Structures are given as C-alpha cells and as structure tokens.
Agmatine deiminase (Sulfuricaulis limicola), 347 residues
Amino acid sequence: MAETCRKYLPPEWAPQSGVMLTWPHVHGDWARRLKQVEPVFTDIARQVARREKVLISCYDRAHREYVGELLTAAGVDMGRVMLRTVPSNDTWARDHGPLTVVCSGEPVLLDFGFNGWGGKYGYELDNQINRRLYAADAFGQTPMQTVDMVLEGGSIEADGSGTLLTTARCLLAPTRNPKLSKQQIEKRLMEFLGINRILWLQHGYLAGDDTDSHIDTLARLCDSRTIAYVRCDDADDEHYAELKAMEEELKALRAADGRPYRLVPLPWPRAKFDEDGNRLPATYANFLIINGAVLVPTYQDPADSEALARVQECFPDREMVAVDCLPLIYQFGSLHCVTMQLPESVL
C-alpha cells in the first residue's frame, strides 16, 4: 500500500460487498453446544445472503460440505455464499477478520495481529485465517497488508469522518501491545486507519466478557452524531456504577462539529447465567449493520422488543431483523462478535 495515499476507514453503515463468518466446529469451544449455536449462524447467513454475499470459513473439506448442506436445507441463497476451507480455533470473525481501509478509492485489507484477546485462548489458527483466505483468492483482487500490531475489530468504532471510539481497558491492556505507549498506539491507528482523532472511554464493562471491554459490547457509533449505548437502570446490579460512569463520559464527548452526541440508551436485559452460575454478557449494542438492514441480537428477554425499537431510532431507513443470540453468549460473545463486514468492491 502506498504510504502517501489518503486512507479512509469506512463506517459499518457504508455499502458492503459481504460479511465474513467463521463457522463453529467440533474442534473448538463450541463442540458441546453445536446443536444450539448452528441455527444462530444459519440465521445470520440467511439474513445477510438476502442482501449481500457471505464468506464462510470452514474447518476442513468435510466441514465445508456439511455447512453447505446445512445452509441449503435452510433455504439460504447459495448464489451469494462463498465457502472456503480454512481451519480455525474459534468463531469470532470480528476480531480475527481483516479491517478494510480505502486507499486512493480502492479497498485494502489490513491483517492486524490477533493473540486470543491477550493470550486468554488459543489463537494460532485464527491469526492465519486472513492470509489463508487471501491465498485462496477469497478476496479477489483486493490487496492485503499485514500489520505488526495486535488489534481486534470489536475494540474500535469508526464514524467514517475521522473519529474512532474505543476503550482504554482493551487497547491499553499490557497483554496486547506491551511495547507501545498510548501515544504510539494512537499514532499507529491514525497512520494505518486514516483517522484524525480517538475518543477514549475509561469506564464500562460487562460481566462474562473476556475481551477487556470491547467497545462493540458497550457503545456504537450509528452515524457521525449518534451513539447507541448500554445503560443499566438497576441500582442493585453490579454494572450500575460503572455503566453510569460510562454514560457520563459519553455525555461529555463532542462530535467532530463540536456539538454533543445524540445518545440513544439501549435497554438492560435480565441477568443471564450458564450452568455453572457464571454471568453471561448479554448486550443489545452488539448489532450488525448490513445493506438495508440491522441485525439485532435478542435473548428471549422482555427487553428484546424495546431494544429493536431503540436501534430502529438510530437507523430509521433500515429494516430491523431480530436474531436470537442467546446461544452465542454461552461463549461470551454475541452477533457483532461473530461477523466482520467487508465494504463494497472487496468480494
């Protein structure tokens, strides 16, 4: 990539060519929950394929055939599905997938390092997925650049106008880029992503989240002036004080034009727990914007309908599509976490 080109990081609401998924398999942490989680992935693939392409990484040849049969049986438009054989540790495409910048009008894939959210889980296969897909011509003529820096897609939000929103707890975690200072991280992000300012949140977390507070579980840019965010209204909940502090931080932020952001609070679902009593990170902020629609995670919760209505406020011209993501949070992520959008012209 020419260092002199003016880079632009498209926001998620920009036109897309497709969405990337890494399908769950028996060799990973989903093994004992495959029957519960496969319908979620199938639903995501079906909804995306109605509007754009779906690029799916499958563990091996047999798995690829199985996924193809599964999707065909579910009525997915297979004309828009690209199945590739690429082994993986896990399924969180948001964090091991490529970030796409536009350089002189052409898309360029950036392959940042992935280290299992600071070495919490195995990651060697996941960290090779982008390069293997590239070698298999999954991205066509789109060039790819490998970047010597750990960065997960779920840890940043872009508005397409030069602003990046992130959390200090994640990006400054010593397990990610221990040799880089905050100033060095900011400089690299500006250099590689073509942004001109970074908004840092010091507060906000979800119990059960093991990403060190990814921004896409807490607060989402919906346009250059609107942020949808998680708000806890239960004063007895462990999250109340921390999310209240995050809300105050958001109120103090200013958009690029100097005005306060329009803040849209998302409802707080009832606490969800696994069989061992661990609280699970259910969040309505983990929605995915695609062409003409927003896929919104639901959790078989009384707050689901209110969440759909609130997200609709942020995207009045897009269709709201509910996706039951209760099975996903048993591995501590949700809808946005398992997807990575690819802007137009990539696929």
About this structure: The two ends are 19 Å apart (CA to CA). The mean pLDDT is 96. The CA atoms of residues 198 and 330 lie 32 Å apart. The chain is about 25% helix and 25% strand.
